[in-house]
What does this fold into?
Amino acid sequence: MIESIFTYQFMTNAILSMIFLSIVAGIVGTYIVVRRMVFVAGGITHASFGGIGIACYLGMPPLIGALLFAVLTAVGIETLGDKGKVRPDSAIAMLWSLGMAIGVLFMFMTPGYSSNLMGFMFGDVLAVSSADVIASAVAAFTLVIVAVIFRRPILYVAFSPSFASLTRWHVRAISILMSIAVAVSLVMAIKAVGIILVLSLFTIPQSISNLFVKNMGHMMILSSIIALIGSLSGLAVAFVFDLPAGAAITAFLTIAFLIVKLCIRK
Amino acid sequence: MTDDALISLQHVCAGYEGRTIVSDVSIDIRNNDFVAFIGPNGGGKTTIIRVMLGLIKPDSGEVNRINGLKIGYLPQSNDIDLSFPISVIDVIMSGQLDGNRLFPPKNVRQKAEELLEFAQLSELRNRPIGELSGGQRQRVFLCRALMGNPQMLILDEPVTYMDKVSETNLYRLLPQLAKQMAIVLVSHDIGTVAPFVKTIACINRTLHYHATNKISDEILRVYDCPVEIVSHGPVPHRVLGIHKYLPND
It folds into this structure.
């Protein structure tokens, strides 16, 4: 069975893609969870759909548009968070639904693209190309380097931004750098697991690992391993039973979380 | 600014979004000063602290610091996420005043270990911060404030929500520190802090400085609030100050 999986190029790409995305999700997802910015991440992901719609309409690669919208939304939320007169959660909700509305409108106006709607919503890890795999490998490698070099500032700024600013850390610069990392990482995962399911990869492994470790660095490593186990298991189930891979991965991770939570309680 | 002052505020007015909280505040903090900032809630204690820390700019007046003044700061504890995955020793090391360097100096862990020992927290070094009691946590944050070898230490209401035992455990560390640095201790509980400090500054919209730690009638008049007074004598006892606005008066 395992040998037959590797005879297909699309399956090899899917497996390599999930390995690199698990590393990305382990690092960035931990930051998202400990900073309690899951709703922000949801806003960024859904707002990026506006970029996908416009890119499709203009005949550009969809993920370029998604990247642009995601980064602008992330930096916008981070920058306006302190200054804006609108409540932060309301502003996120507005950007969330505005992005989706723009995406749907432009998709509707683009002939032949409406059928791709489901693909962007729920992803298709089996459609990941070799170029996508290389992109996710570069992202994973870059994030590991950033997480190692900036370990202290990321930890200190995430724990207590107000105190970090007193110790001469460039809090705003570090927060914006991490917001960009969050946006890029979420967009990288859209093709594989889709807009609606992407958050599962960035929150469930982290929630499981947080049940075992109470150290941000350890949480990043363990989350990556759990994300990898969950996504490869989901992928295997999807392959065997001919199910959508993104949904199988999300279901597998959620069941794993519930089982671990129940076992720990006992 | 006098020659031996670490920081000097002269006729400072400050507030938020155009609303003045304190006005005409003048005070010098010198090396080895141990001053209590006391006053009612909303009187402007934290505003003056924020001016000293450089977190807000005064609307008028002057703030002068000696070059490279290092200030250790123990904020009120209620802005911390207790579920955050960070160990006690990492919290303490985050106090290193070296934001311009990515990697810590070699002795940073040793310094953190020394502070853990000083605060009697060594056995908790690898515990997550959220698993500590309120009193232990505040001692960890005190260690964090001391990590950068500050010349001046600011403690903002350090014993809020703490029981008396934890309060004593924290306060008994302060006299030793006062020999090495200037300390500003912010509190709304004048009676508890008076025995520890050398001088008292009453803050209620402006600042009245008293070069003594004796609680006088003038202090109580400025304080303008019911306070718990600890009297010193052969037998420990407490009396409560009479509030002049009691309904039956």
